[in-house]
Amino acid sequence: MSTETETTGAEVGTPPPAGWEEARSRVYAVGLSAALPAVARPLADTDGHTLAEPLTTRTDLPAFPTSSVDGWAVRGAGPWRVAGRVLAGQTASPLDEDGSTVEIATGAMVPAGTTAILRIEESTRTADGRVAGTPRSQPEWREPAEEAHLGEELVPAGTPVDPAVIGLAASCGHDTLRVRRPPRAALLVFGDELLTSGPPGAGRVRDALGPSVPGWLRRYGCQVRGGDVVGPVADTLPAHVAALRGALANADLVCTTGGTMHGPVDHLHPTLEALGADYVVNTVAVRPGFPMLLARLVDGDGRVRFVAGLPGNPQSAVVALVSLVAPLLAGLTGRPMPVLPQVTLAEPVPGRGDHTHLALARWDRVAGTAHPVRHVGSAMLRGLAGADGFAVIRPGTSGAAGDRVPLVPLPLMPGERS
Ligand SMILES: Nc1nc2c(c(=O)[nH]1)N[C@H]1C(S)=C(S)[C@@H](COP(=O)(O)OP(=O)(O)OC[C@H]3O[C@@H](n4cnc5c(N)ncnc54)[C@H](O)[C@@H]3O)O[C@H]1N2
Ligand code: MOO
C-alpha cells in the first residue's frame, strides 16, 4: 500500500496523523476529482441529486405579459364595450379600439393594446351592458422577464436539488436536469464482541453503529439500501477481505466500523492492503476519533471507490463521519466544501494538546451560542443524543467562554432536536 507522507522514525512506514483541517481539505479535493458522472434525469426524479451545471432559464420569465387578477383588460377610457374573453392558456388577440375590453382570467396572456386591468369585483355594468369602474393605479399584470431573462443563470452548479429548485426548473421550461446522483454507500460492522439484540453484559456490547450509521449517511444524502449494511463481520482477515470486496461491488463509499487500530483482531489495514487500496488520510490529529482513515481504490477501468474507516468507539465513529465523510460526499457530488458556522462558546472547553478537540455541544441558533454537553466519552452516545454538533477547539488552544469557534453540525433534519 502506498503512503504519501514521510515516516516519523518511531514506527517505520507509518505517516504522522494529518491535521484535522488539512485532512478535510485533502478528502474534499480527492472526492471532487472523483466526482460522480453528470447525467440527464427527468425533472421529477432529481430530488436529492446535485446540479451538475447551472440552472438557466429557457425563456423570459414570465414568458408573456400575464394577468395577475380576474377582471377586464381595457383599452382607453371607459365605459368599455365587451369584445370577448381570454382565459389562461389561450393566445390573446389585440385590443384594437379605445373603449373596448375583454374579460381576462388570472394567468391569461394580456392582449396587446391593453392600457389597464380592472378587477372583476371593482367593476360594474352600465344599463347598455358596458363595463365601468376605475382601474387601480399599479399594474395588475406581470411583465415578461420580470423574474428572469432568457438564458439567465438562476442557480449555480453544485446546488443540491430540492423541491424549490425542481419547481423553478419546471417553470422555466426544463424537462430534464443534468445532475450527479446521490452517492451509494454501504456499511460493514466489525467486532466479534457485538450483540445485535438484547442488553449488553458478560463482555459483550450492543452494536450501536450498524443501526445508526445508515441514518447519518442518508442524512448526508447517500443512498443506503437494507442489503448494504453487513455485520458483525467475523474477526478474521479472510472474512474482512471477502466482506469489503462484496460491499465495494455496488458502492461508491464503504464505511467500516472498528478495527482501525492495530490490536490482535484489528484487520482493517491488512484488508485494505490486500485489496490494493491507497490512503488519502491515515489517522487524524483530532480527539476523539484519532484512528479514522480514508482509503481509495481504483479499478482497472478507472472507477474510483472509497473506504472510510470509522473507529469502533461509537462517538469516535460519528466524529469520523462529520470530519471525513461529509467533505468526501460534498466532493463526490460536486457540491461546495461545507462551510462551518461560527459560534460563541457559552462555557469553557478544554483543548487536547496538539490535537484538534471536537467537543459535543448543543447549538442555540438564535443566540449563536454553543453549550458543551455532558457524557461525552468516546465510548458514549448519551451526549451525542442531545447535541447538535461539535465545537472545534484548535490544536494548542483551549476554549474560554465567549470565544468564537467553528462548529461542525450533525446532519440533523428539521424537527430533530429542538
Ligand atoms: N494501544 C492503543 N489502543 C488504542 C488506542 C491507541 O492509541 N493505542 N486508541 C484508542 C482509540 S482512540 C480508539 S477510537 C479505538 C479505536 O479502535 P478500533 O477502531 O480498532 O475499534 P475496536 O477496537 O474494534 O473497538 C473499540 C471500542 O469500540 C467498541 N465498538 C466497536 N464497534 C462497536 C459498535 N459497532 N457498537 C458499539 N461499540 C463498538 C468496542 O467494543 C471497543 O470497546 O482504539 C483505542 N485503542
Ligand atoms: O480518539 Mo478515540 O477515537 O479517543 O476514542
Automatic annotation (TrEMBL):
Keyword tags: Magnesium, Metal-binding, Molybdenum, Molybdenum cofactor biosynthesis, Transferase
InterPro entries, per the entry: MoaB/Mog-like_dom_sf (IPR036425), MoaB/Mog_dom (IPR001453), MoeA-like (IPR038987), MoeA_C_domain_IV (IPR005111), MoeA_C_domain_IV_sf (IPR036688), MoeA_linker/N (IPR005110), MoeA_linker/N_sf (IPR036135)
Record GO cellular component, one term: cytosol
Enzyme class: transferase
SUPFAM superfamilies according to UniProt: MoeA C-terminal domain-like, MoeA N-terminal region -like, Molybdenum cofactor biosynthesis proteins
Domain MoaB/Mog: 186-331
Family per record: Belongs to the MoeA family.
Function: Catalyzes the insertion of molybdate into adenylated molybdopterin with the concomitant release of AMP.
Listed name of the protein: Molybdopterin molybdenumtransferase
